């Protein structure tokens, strides 16, 4: 893949996320090694990786439902709480369903 072509999921990541992926790859996928490099515990790195996985999955789905992807991304980034995200998504789906009828 030419360097000029960056997958959409990768372009949506923050610089900090890309740096984490780089460290993870250079550490041969060892979460213990990444934890040592960052000076944090294994569970902390595991949580960060889980959130990064969620961000990538959301980016891949965003083309289908950009509003829902935005709400989920805000929840993953802890900018809104999960209950508020669920409520917003639920109300959006109700409104969207009513408009399609």
The CATH class designation of the largest domain is Mainly Alpha
Identify the CATH architecture of the largest domain: Orthogonal Bundle
Summarize the main sheet.
none
Give the helix/strand class. Answer: mainly alpha
- The tally of structural domains comes to 2
Q: How many distinct helices?
A: 6
What is the residue-averaged pLDDT? 85
Strand content: under 5%
At the fold tier of CATH, the topology name of the largest domain is Arc Repressor Mutant, subunit A
Question: What's this entry about, in short?
Answer:
This protein has six helices and no strands. The chain is mostly helical and 101 residues long. The chain starts with 7 loop residues before the first helix and ends with a helix.
Question: How would you sum up this structure, described in words?
Answer:
With 101 residues, this protein is mainly alpha-helical. The protein has two domains: 8-61, Arc Repressor Mutant, subunit A; 63-101, no CATH class. It has six helices and no strands. It has helices at residues 8-11, 15-26, 31-38, 42-61, 66-76, 82-100. The longest helix has 20 residues, at 42-61. The chain is elongated, with a radius of gyration of 17 Å. The model has no long low-confidence stretch (mean pLDDT 85).
Present the secondary structure layout.
Elements: H1 8-11, H2 15-26, H3 31-38, H4 42-61, H5 66-76, H6 82-100
